[in-house]
Each structure stands twice: as structure tokens, then as C-alpha cells.
Amino acid sequence: MRSFMKFGFWVLNQWDRTDNMTQRINEGVEQVKHAREAGFDFIGTGQHFLSYPFQMVSTLPYLARLAQESGDMEVVAGVLLLPLLNPLETAEATASLDAMTNGKFIMGVGIGYRDEEFISFNVKTKERIPRLLESLDLIKKLWTQDEIEFDGEFYRVPYSKIATHPISKPHPPIWMAANLDVAVKRAARNGYPWLINPHATTTSLIPQIEIYKDVAMRTNGFVPDLPMLKELYVHKDSSVAYAKAQPFLEPKYAAYASWGQDDVLPNNETFKIPFEQLAKDRFMLGNPQEIIEEIQRYEDTLGITHMFFRMQWAGLPHSEVLQQIELFRTEIIPHFK
Asked: Which one is the CATH code of 6-336: 3.20.20.30, 3.50.50.60, 1.25.40.10, 3.20.20.80?
């Protein structure tokens, strides 16, 4: 059937601490080539600091390398922890990346949640929301204006002429991550597509989607795109998909729990439950037909416009990622395109 949903491939940038980072980066480059040939619409990766027990390659340099192989695919930073970053440096780095991608860069942003990151960057956790909004205001001015003078609560730029701009007009799209209702409303009020996390269940998301759409319509008169990240393992045998994913997804979410990720989820959801319960209504693990049905359900039920698939976690072999991309190419993407 014809669908207007765009499909994204999440490139892993978080590996076991004993892995050879150069090898893993080269594997990511190869995966992007295969995703491009398979017909994916966009690629991306995320950002964290002090990511033990994983090693993590820095987001924007990695995306710059991957952009050389991305072709016509959009390239997403999903997400930059903006309250921790210098907005001037971020504006110029992302404008550069927009040029490298020929205007196909998308900047995802989030407020962050890990105490050690805020302490290390000397940023107060209570300041993260005003810092996020002020940083976005300044970045958009740096992207779009030829002259600037900015004196905010957290950031200051003396009168300056600006020569480094993105080639996207008026500027690259911005996606905003959100977990709790108040954050969902913030994204809606400011007119940003809400980048939906892979952790929440459909049960939690249905009322949040309604909140988002209602606030967006009342504030701006339109509903922006709804991109979503999902954990996925596809195999011709659904029981094999489940069995192959569990040894890698389970420790991933144990690490998330140790970081406090589930403390910011709605409805007191937790990752500290048996894997069978954790996976239910949360992860896409199955055969191609089951994955097709799940994608269709998210499009029909929630109105998802962009679906980001994370097909690899630390330790999962590169060869299995390529096999999954091939199944997408031959059996899943043709159903929707």
C-alpha cells in the first residue's frame, strides 16, 4: 500500500568498551551505504557523554563522516543535548554539516537527564529548560541573520557580522525530544516536531499524542511531523528475531535504568522488569509481515510520519545488521513505497 511515512536507519555510535572504535565506525559507514541502496529516507545517531559502560563516538564528527555516504538521505542529529553545548559552536558546526549534506541536515534537540553530564559541564539541572529555549533562539538567529547582538540570561554574543549560514532555508528543521506531558506541550507550543522516544508504550503515547496535537493546533494552527525512534530486529522467523535481540537489548536497557532514563518516563513506567514485559508494546521484534503490521499500526493509530529504526545494540554483529537492512529492502520498504 502507498504510505507517506519516511523510514530512517539509526547508526549505532555506542559500543562495548573493549571494541575497536575504528572498526565499528567503518562498519557504520558500510551500513549507511546499504541503507541508502535499500531505500531508507534518512539516517542519524545520538549524543551522550561519560557513557560508561559503553564507549561512544562523538555525534557531529561521526555524522560528517557518514554524510559522505548518505546520498539523498537526510542526516539527523538525534538528539543534541543543547543545554550542555555552546550555541555559537553548535550553530556553526551544524551549518557546516548542513553544507556537507547539501541541505539535508535535521537537528534534533533534547534537555538531557543525567546528573554526571550536567555536573561535568558545570550546568545546573534546573536551568536546562531555559537554556534549551535560549540556545535555540540564539542558534536560529546565528543561522538566519547577517548581523547579531545577543544578550541573554545564559549566552552573550557581542555585535558581530555572520558569514557562516546553513544552506537550508530558512534553516535546518528542528526536532524536539520529549518524554513527560509538560515537555510534549513545550514542543507543540514552539511548533517543533516531537521526536518520540523508543521507550514508551503505545498505551502511554496515545494520550500524549492527543495532548501534542491539541496544543499544536490551538497555538499554531497546524500539527508538525511526528518522528519516532523504535528498537527493531527483523528476521524471517519471529522467534529467532526475539532470541537474537534479547542478549543485546536487555543490557542496553539495564544501562538506561542505571542512568535514570526510566525516571523521566510517563505513568511511572520502568525498565526494571523481565524482558518479556519490557519488550511488549515497546520493541519491534518479528518477521517482515509482523513488522509491516506494526509500522502500519503506528501510522494509523498515532499518525507517525517518520520512523527511525535502531537495528543494532552494543555487541550485535555487523553482519546481522546488513541482513536486516536486506530484509527491509526486499520485503518491508516495497510494501509501503
From this structure: 3.20.20.30
